[in-house]
Amino acid sequence: MHRLFSITEQFLGYLLCGLLMLLSASVIWQVIGRYVLTNPATWPDEIARFSMIWVAMLGGAFVYSKKKHLAVTILPERLAGTAKGYLLEIFHHVLVIGFGLIGLVGGYKMTMNNFDFGQVSPVLKINMGYVYSAVPIAGFLLIGFAIYFIAQNIQSIRELHKEAI
């Protein structure tokens, strides 16, 4: 399970780097086209917007996998290394699973609706279902990472219990 987690996390990091480069390049091209060439192109704006959606959604999952997401850590830090601390973390990860399920199910419905109705972007003519599919993918990743962290916490509680005996 650890190997799958590591591979997924590493792949996600590389994918995000590529998306950030695409986002940066499209914004730079847009600025050059508008202010230097005085002939603005319309496609860089859509590429930047769609890249930003994917970076935001997948970036949230990536940051969660690194445990670097925004959090209030007063109570977890005081309970660190105790069974109560691990149980608090498990509760936190269960909440993340709940939000991940909302993203997965709601995002799946939204994505499928866009594929069914054939909504396309104005300039690039990309089906918007591809753009919106970032939501269920991020939800799926959040759920997977949370399950991995719960398994780690359960293992830590077992080790604490063995030490206490």
From TrEMBL:
Stated name of the protein: TRAP transporter small permease protein
Cellular localization per UniProt: Cell inner membrane
Quaternary structure and partners: The complex comprises the extracytoplasmic solute receptor protein and the two transmembrane proteins.
Transmembrane parts of this sequence: 12-32, 47-65, 86-110, 130-151
Purpose of the protein: Part of the tripartite ATP-independent periplasmic (TRAP) transport system.
GO molecular-function term, one example from the UniProt record: transmembrane transporter activity
Domain Tripartite ATP-independent periplasmic transporters DctQ component: 25-154
Gene Ontology terms: cellular component: plasma membrane
